C-alpha cells in the first residue's frame, strides 16, 4: 500500500520538522455540519449502519477533503466500537446519544469482559481504513494526504461502559473508582490491551498516524488521572507498532481538560499532545520544550463568529505558538454540528495563508 504522499505536512509537523506552513485538520471534520454527510447518513439508515459499512465510511471520510484543503483525513468511525465488540449492546437513540444495553457494573460483569477479536468483530473498521487509503490515491498514483486512525482511551471507554452511556457527573464509574478500584483497574487493563490491538490493526491496514481520544480524562481528580487514565494511555502506547512499511507511525494523545498534566502527558511516549482551548499554546510549547509536537486549539464555538472574526482567532492561536516547528492546528474539541461551513472555509484558508507568511 506504499504510495507517495502529495502532502506530508501533517506528518512532518508531528515529527517537529520544519514545514512551509502550519497544517490543519479538524476533530469530527467528517460529520453532521456537512449537508453531504447528512445525505449519506440518510442513505445508510442509521448511524451504526453508516459507521459499520466501509463504503459509507469511505465516502464520509473523503467529504470534507472535497470542500476544504485539509492536511489530513481521519477515519470515520466511533470511539465505542471496542465496547460494542465486547458484546455490551451499543445503540444510538435520537437526541440521547449512545447507550449500552449491558453496562459493566458488578464483579460478574467485569469477569465476563475479554479483549475482542479485531479480525472477526472489528474487521469493518480495518476494511474501511484500507479502502480509504486506496481512495486517497489520485490519478497520478500519489496519495493526497495522510490518513489518521483512532481509538478512545481506556478510561474514556470505561466511562461509557460503566455508566451505560454519556454522563453529566460520572457518578457510577467514580463510585467504582473510589469503592472498588480493583474492578476498575481490571476493566482498564482489558481496555488497554484492546486499544493497542485495535490501533495496531488500523496501522497494518494503512493508518499513517493514530490518535488516542481521552475525552473524559479531565473529569478525574489529580492523582486519579495518573492512576486511572494516564498509566493506561502509556500502556497503549507501549503496545503500539511504531513503524510500518518502513515509515514511523506518529501517535497523538488528547486529554480534554488535561492542561494541568501537560508535562506528564508529554512524557507518555506520544509524539504529539492535543490541547483544548483552555491552554495557551505559547506557554504549552515552552513547557514541553522539544519533547512533543502540539495539536490544537481553537475554541469550536469561535466558528460561530463571522468569518473575519474566525480569521482573527486563527491568527491569535498561530501567534501564540509562534514560528516554531511542531504545531498542528486543530480545534480544542470536535466541531459542533451547527457550525457554518463558511466559517470552516475561512479558518482553513487563514491558517494556511497566515502561517505561510510567518515562515517567510
Features:
alpha/beta, TIM Barrel, seven-stranded parallel sheet, 16 helices, 12% strand, cytoplasm, Uroporphyrinogen_deCO2ase_HemE, Uroporphyrinogen_deCOase, decarboxylase
Kindly describe this structure.
Helices cover 47% and strands 12% of the residues. The chain contains 16 helices and 11 strands. The protein has helices spanning 9-14, 35-44, 47-51, 54-67, 81-85, 107-112, 118-121, 123-135, 154-163, 171-179, 181-205, 224-238, 262-266, 281-288, 307-321, 341-359; strands at residues 73-74, 90-93, 97-100, 147-152, 209-214, 243-244, 247-248, 251-255, 272-274, 293-298, 327-331. The strands form 3 sheets. It has a 7-stranded parallel beta sheet with strand order 1-4-5-8-9-10-11. A hairpin with a 2-residue loop joins strand 6 and strand 7. The radius of gyration is 19 Å and the shape is globular. The model has no long low-confidence stretch (mean pLDDT 96). It catalyses: uroporphyrinogen III + 4 H(+) = coproporphyrinogen III + 4 CO2. InterPro entries: UROD/MetE-like_sf, Uroporphyrinogen_deCO2ase_HemE, Uroporphyrinogen_deCOase. One of its GO terms (molecular function) is uroporphyrinogen decarboxylase activity. Residues 23-32, 148-164 form the Uroporphyrinogen decarboxylase (URO-D) domain.
Strand order of the largest sheet: 1-4-5-8-9-10-11
Name of the top-level CATH class: Alpha Beta
Number of strands: 11
Distance between the termini: 35 Å
Oligomer: single chain
| CATH topology call | TIM Barrel
Calculate Rg over CA atoms: 19 Å
- Fraction of residues in β-strands: 5-15%
Structural class call reads alpha/beta
Which consecutive residue ranges, at least 5 long each, have pLDDT under 50? Answer: none
- By CATH, the architecture is named Alpha-Beta Barrel
Total domain count: 1
Largest sheet: 7 strands, parallel
The helix tally amounts to 16
Please state the average pLDDT score: 96
Order of helices and strands: HHHHEHEEHHHEHHHEHEEEHEHEHEH
Helical coverage, percent range: 40-55%
Q: State the shape.
A: globular
Amino acid at each position: 500500500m506504499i504510495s507517495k504522499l502529495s502532502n506530508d505536512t501533517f506528518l512532518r509537523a508531528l515529527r517537529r520538522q520544519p514545514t512551509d506552513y502550519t497544517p490543519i485538520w479538524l476533530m469530527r471534520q467528517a460529520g453532521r455540519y456537512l449537508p453531504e454527510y447528512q445525505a449519506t447518513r440518510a442513505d445508510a439508515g442509521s448511524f451504526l449502519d453508516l459507521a459499520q459499512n466501509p463504503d459509507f465510511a469511505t465516502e464520509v471520510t473523503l467529504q470534507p477533503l472535497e470542500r476544504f484543503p485539509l492536511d489530513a483525513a481521519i477515519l470515520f468511525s466511533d470511539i465505542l466500537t471496542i465496547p460494542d465488540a465486547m458484546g455490551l449492546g451499543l445503540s444510538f437513540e435520537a437526541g440521547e446519544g449512545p447507550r449500552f444495553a449491558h453496562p459493566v457494573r458488578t464483579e460478574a460483569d467485569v469477569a465476563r469482559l475479554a479483549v475482542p477479536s479485531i479480525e472477526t468483530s472489528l474487521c469493518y473498521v480495518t476494511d474501511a481504513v484500507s479502502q480509504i487509503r486506496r481512495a486517497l490515491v489520485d490519478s497520478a498514483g500519489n496519495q493526497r494526504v495522510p490518513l489518521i486512525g483512532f481509538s478512545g482511551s481506556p478510561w474514556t471507554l470505561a466511562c461509557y461502559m460503566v455508566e451505560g452511556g454519556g454522563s453529566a457527573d460520572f457518578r457510577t464509574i467514580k463510585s467504582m473508582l473510589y469503592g472498588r478500584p480493583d474492578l476498575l483497574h481490571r476493566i482498564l487493563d482489558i481496555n488497554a490491551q484492546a486499544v493497542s490491538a485495535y490501533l495496531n490493526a488500523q496501522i497494518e491496514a494503512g493508518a499513517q498516524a493514530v490518535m488516542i481520544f481521552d475525552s473524559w480524562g479531565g473529569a478525574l481528580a489529580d492523582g486519579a488521572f495518573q492512576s486511572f487514565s494516564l498509566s493506561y494511555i502509556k500502556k497503549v502506547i507501549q503496545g503500539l507498532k511504531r513503524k510500518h512499511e518502513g515509515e514511523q507511525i506518529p501517535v497523538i494523545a488528547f486529554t480534554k481538560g488535561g492542561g494541568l498534566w501537560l508535562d506528564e502527558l508529554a512524557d507518555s511516549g506520544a509524539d504529539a499532545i492535543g490541547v483544548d482551548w483552555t491552554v495557551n499554546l505559547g506557554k504549552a510549547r515552552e513547557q514541553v520544550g522539544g519533547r512533543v509536537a502540539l495539536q490544537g486549539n481553537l475554541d469550536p464555538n469561535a466558528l460561530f463568529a463571522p468569518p473575519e472574526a474566525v480569521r482573527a482567532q486563527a491568527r491569535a492561536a498561530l501567534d501564540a505558538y509562534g514560528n516554531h516547528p511542531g504545531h498542528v492546528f486543530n480545534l480544542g474539541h470536535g466541531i459542533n454540528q451547527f457550525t457554518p461551513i463558511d466559517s470552516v472555509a475561512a479558518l482553513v484558508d487563514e491558517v494556511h495563508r497566515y502561517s505561510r507568511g510567518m515562515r517567510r
